[in-house]
Amino acid sequence: MHRRYRRNSYLTLLLVFGLLLIGAGCSGGQEEDPFQVGVIPAQNKGNMKKAMDKLEKKLSDELNRPVAIKIYSDYQGVVEAMKYKKMDMAFFGPLTFVQAREETGIKAVVTQLIDGKPYYHSYIIVPEDSPLDSIDDLAKNSGKVDFAFGDINSTSGSLIPGIALKKEGVFQDQEHHRFKGVTYTGSHDITALSIQNKKYDAGAIDSAIYEQLVEDGKVDDSKVKVIWKSDRLFQYPWAVRRDIDDQTVKKLRKAFLSIKDPEILSVFGANGFTKAENADYEAIRQAAKEAGRLQLDSN
Q1: Which helix (H) or strand (E) holds 183?
Q2: For residue 72, which of 77, 108, 267, 276 is within the disulfide window of CB 3.0 to 4.6 Å?
Q3: Could you tell me what percent of the chain has a pLDDT over 70?
Q4: Residues 128, 198 share a domain
Q5: For strand 89-91 and strand 237-240, is the pairing parallel, antiparallel, or unpaired?
Q6: What are the backbone angles phi and psi of residue 232, rounded to the nearest 5°?
Q7: Residue 42 has what pLDDT?
Q8: Taking phi first (over 0 means left), then psi (-120 to 50 degrees means alpha), and beta for anything else, what does residue 74 get?
Q9: Residues 132 and 193 reside in one and the same domain
Q10: C-alpha span between 140 and 27 (Å, rounded)
Q11: Rounded to whole angstroms, what are the CA distances from 130 to 127, 165, 192, 204, 209?
Q12: Per the similarity annotation, which family is this (predicted)?
């Protein structure tokens, strides 16, 4: 009888232990995967890693789940990650946003405020002592001009000035133009410094980034002048995949709109965030279509 009691006790202990293991396994299985966020720095500014660590915590606290932010070096990497669902949210340039939206159906959530406004412009800048004073002058003297665009996927550094120069009859693409030379520098910072140092005769740049570079003392505005300014463009959007639920979008907007930390804001050259919708980028969408950078449905 004692032997039977010991055996039953042993079996009971095994059963309890097994249930505890199963419970632990189930508990572990309920932990959510991190909410993945991708960021491309618009300029080389501030301590990006430290700022993104702070942003991770801010978003994680609001979503009540882990958040992982990955910094990308180019637009295409972010677009591909979103396309294959390796990312839940990303910081896009307006052009790459409308391209990715057309392909994957992503949704705009928020955008940044620069001097309290969600708008910026494309500038064409030249050295201060340049004889060029307008886009008309630039077109008339294009054969003498080495022109610098930024990243080929940039809205203000490529798409919008490219359309303006196309209307002037001096530019189609990097291989077909009337300039002495055309270069894509890859970033707004490089474009601004190259114009200041007279490496190129004219260049296209994001107005907000140009003004920030001047404010930070990285560019001397007495050595550079603006000869062309586009219509206003809606600022860079943060967007989510189309299958992200409305409640999560609401929480994300709440988190971004509450950000006051200057270390987070400064890396984007921003002083706050505001709500954004897909419709805010319709003008960019049509510009991309005009430039042959976007295939729209015929419906």
Answers
A1: strand 181-184
A2: 77
A3: 86
A4: yes
A5: antiparallel
A6: -70, 145
A7: 63
A8: beta
A9: yes
A10: 70
A11: 5, 18, 15, 15, 22
A12: Belongs to the phosphate/phosphite/phosphonate binding protein family.
Contact of 125 with 224, CB cutoff 8 Å: yes
Question: Terminal CA-to-CA distance of the chain, rounded, Å?
Answer: 83
Which pTM was predicted? 0.82
- Residue 171 is given by DSSP the state B
Question: At 236, phi and psi to the nearest 5?
Answer: -55, 125
What pLDDT, on a 0 to 100 scale, did the predictor assign at position 77? Answer: 81
Is residue 4, in this structure, part of any structural domain at all? no
Residues 105 and 144 placed together within one structural domain of the fold: no
C-alpha closest to that of 148 among 180, 100, 112: 180
**193 falls within a domain:** yes
Answer yes or no: do 75 and 202 share one domain. Answer: no
Q: Which of 183, 201, 230 is the last residue of a domain?
A: 230
Q: What are the beta bridge partners of residue 146?
A: 181
Q: What is the count of structural domains for the chain?
A: 2
CATH number at residue 274: 3.40.190.10
Question: Over the stretch 218-264, which tens digit does the pLDDT of each residue have?
Answer: 999 999 999 999 999 999 999 999 999 999 999 999 999 999 999 99
DSSP class per residue in 21-69: HHHHHHHHHTSPPPEEEEE--SSS-S-HHHHHHHHHHHHHHHHTS-EEE
| Both tokens assigned to 169 | 């009859």
Round to whole Å and give the CA distance between 146 and 133.
16
Residue 138 lies in a domain: yes
Which residue do the tokens 């639920």 mark?
Answer: 245
Cα torsion through 287, 210, 140, 233, rounded to 10: 20
Q: Which domain holds residue 103?
A: 35-118+234-290
Answer whether residue 90 is part of any domain.
yes
